[in-house]
Amino acid sequence: MPISIRAAGPKDLPALQLLWQKFNAYLDTIDEPEHIDPTLFSRFEALCFGPDAVCRALLAEHDGEPVGYSIYFWGVRMESVTASLHIADIFVDEAVRGTGAGRALMDHIREMARHRGAGQVIWNVWNKNASAIAFYKRIGARHLEEELQMIWPVDQPPARPIV
Fold it and tell me: Which UniProt keywords apply (predicted)?
């Protein structure tokens, strides 16, 4: 049976959590384990399915069993003044890699972006995740050398104004 992609809902939280745990375990095999607090996932329901949701989720299934997911949100790229679909997270279980699940997720995401008139799909990939980078290159994605991702934690004190 082929891979199917569908929107995830609150009833899919146990499957999404299991896949998220597998993703973190996989990342730990690439570099020093980060020991992500497993209780962090409890925030996900509100972020994705709550009244003030900031993202959405897709679930990839093979023979009715969850094998992958993607979390995404919409944004705007002002240099091209177009909508953009941003992938916040994407994972396919190692047991089914090579079956087309990753490609099915990416194709579905790209079609959603095309349908909404978005100009691009944007995501980050950890520079140590060589297999993911190779996959993205195989499907025709390229990395931007002229941009750097910046992170500014909101719980840090504000910088002092320069006088």
Answer: Acyltransferase, Transferase
